[in-house]
Structure formats: structure tokens, C-alpha cells
Amino acid sequence: GAVVSQHPSRVICKSGTSVKIECRSLDFQATTMFWYRQFPKKSLMLMATSNEGSKATYEQGVEKDKFLINHASLTLSTLTVTSAHPEDSSFYICSANSGTNTGELFFGEGSRLTVL
Amino acid sequence: GESVGLHLPTLSVQEGDNSIINCAYSNSASDYFIWYKQESGKGPQFIIDIRSNMDKRQGQRVTVLLNKTVKHLSLQIAATQPGDSAVYFCAENTGTYKYIFGTGTRLKVLA
């Protein structure tokens, strides 16, 4: 199946700094990628839809100035958590559609962010 | 609507028994559904999918049932093994590749 890679898998940062998480589709081109956030023992919450070459579409309640998304190429989307605070600590997961008719989503391995 | 914010229910099953995990979806217009398995600290993995024009689909050891009348999905795992222990999520497609995830169920396989 299609492969989606996320980096870094774990990151610890100080409060007030910014952190960038990368999501790459390794063997297919993804015009659309999705960013999810997951709290411990909770479900995945869609944060935004990342569109190649255009602005991301954010879900209600998600601060676009806090969570900057860039989708500069067909294989790379980045999520930057700006001026991170402890409440931003979470598991962030990206996904991409392989472009087949099934509409199946492939997920990255996730990135665990801890803000001290 | 979304079920974000609810704590995960847990299903404990004896090794070798069959497991049934249930999911209620929210949008009657959703036409594609996927079951995902998520192990601790990892991203979700695809298990099986089903389209709304079907009511049953079988894979290897897994079966998905869809009841559109009551907006209900179930995942059946035959002969449950320790490696099946994980959190299972259903996801509904509400529009072009956009998915909404259910609350999830933690499956614990007892030896």
C-alpha cells in the first residue's frame, strides 16, 4: 500500500518556540493531505485539509495562525505549531489519499509533541 | 456530529474468541466507511472498507457489516489473537476524501 512518512516522530520543545512537523507521501503524489490531532485515549480530530498550491482549509475552532500549514509540493505538507504552549502538547497525525478510486486514506506514524 | 471528547470504551475478549466492535456514524449521506486499527504511539492502519451500496464485506479474519437504516457499522474479528489488541476506529467519508472518526474502541485480548 501507499506510504506516508512523518518527521519527527517525537519532539520536545520549550514554551514559546515553534515546531515544524513534516508529512511526506513516499510513493505517490497527494494533492490533498489532512492533519489530525489526537489527545490521549481519544479519537482523531481533523484540524485542517492541506491543499497543494493553495491555502489550507481549517476546521471550526482550529486557529490557523497557531497551526500553520504549507503544502508546497505534491509529496510534502508541513504543520508548524507556532509559539507552542503546554496545551499544544499532543499527538499529531497526517494522512493522504493515494488518489485511487477507493478514497482510502493512508496515515503517517504520527508525531508526539511535548511542550515544556 | 463528531464524537470527539468521549473516553474510549473497552472490549475484553478471550484469545481465540470472536470480537465484535460497533460504531454509530453521524451522516446519512456518507457513502464510504473504513475501519482502522491503531496501536499505541502509532498512526492508524487500514483494516477494511465498505461502500454504502453494500451491507457486508469480508476480509481475512475480519468482516464489516453496514446497516444504513440505523447508521451503524460493526467490525467482526474471528479467532481474536493477542496481536489484535489495539484501538479500533471507524471513519466515515463525508465528502471528497474528508473523513470523520468515531470515538474508538480499545480491544484487549486476554490470554
- DSSP helix count of chain A? 0
H/E topology pattern of chain A: EEEEEEEEEEE
Topology pattern of chain B, helix = H, strand = E: EEEEEEEEEE
Low-pLDDT regions of chain A? none
Major sheet characteristics of chain A: 7 strands, mixed
Number of strands of chain B: 10
By oligomeric state, this entry counts as heterodimer
| Largest inter-chain contact set | A-B, 27 and 30 residues
Mean pLDDT of chain A: 91
Give the termini separation of chain A.
37 Å
Find the count of extended strands of chain A (DSSP E, 2+ residues): 11
Mean pLDDT of chain B: 89
Rg of chain A from C-alpha positions? 13 Å
Which residues of chain B sit in consecutive blocks of at least 5 with pLDDT less than 50? Answer: 1-6
Shape of chain A: globular
Outline the biggest β-sheet of chain B.
6 strands, mixed
Alpha-carbon Rg of chain B, integer: 13 Å
Q: Roughly how many Å apart are the termini of chain B?
A: 37 Å
Give the class of chain A from helix and strand content and strand pairing: mainly beta
Helix percentage of chain A:
under 10%
Write a structural description.
The complex is a heterodimer of chains A (116) and B (111). By secondary structure, chain A is mostly beta strands. In chain A, 0% of the residues lie in helices and 53% in strands. Chain A has no helices and eleven strands. Chain A has strands at residues 4-7, 10-13, 19-25, 32-38, 44-51, 57-58, 67-73, 76-81, 90-97, 105-107, 111-115. In chain A, the strands form two sheets. In chain A, strands 2, 4, 5, 6, 9, 10 and 11 form a seven-stranded mixed β-sheet that branches. Chain A has a four-stranded antiparallel β-sheet with strand order 1-3-8-7, with no helix packed on it. In chain A, a hairpin with a 2-residue loop joins strand 7 (67-73) and strand 8. The model of chain A has no long low-confidence stretch (mean pLDDT 91). By secondary structure, chain B is mostly beta strands. Residues 1-6 of chain B have low confidence and may be disordered. Classes of the chains: A mainly beta (116), B mainly beta (111). Chain A binds chain B through residues 1, 4, 6, 32, 34, 36, 41-46, 49, 91, 93, 95, 97, 102-110, 112, and chain B through 2-8, 32, 34, 36, 41-46, 49, 89, 91, 93, 96-104, 106.
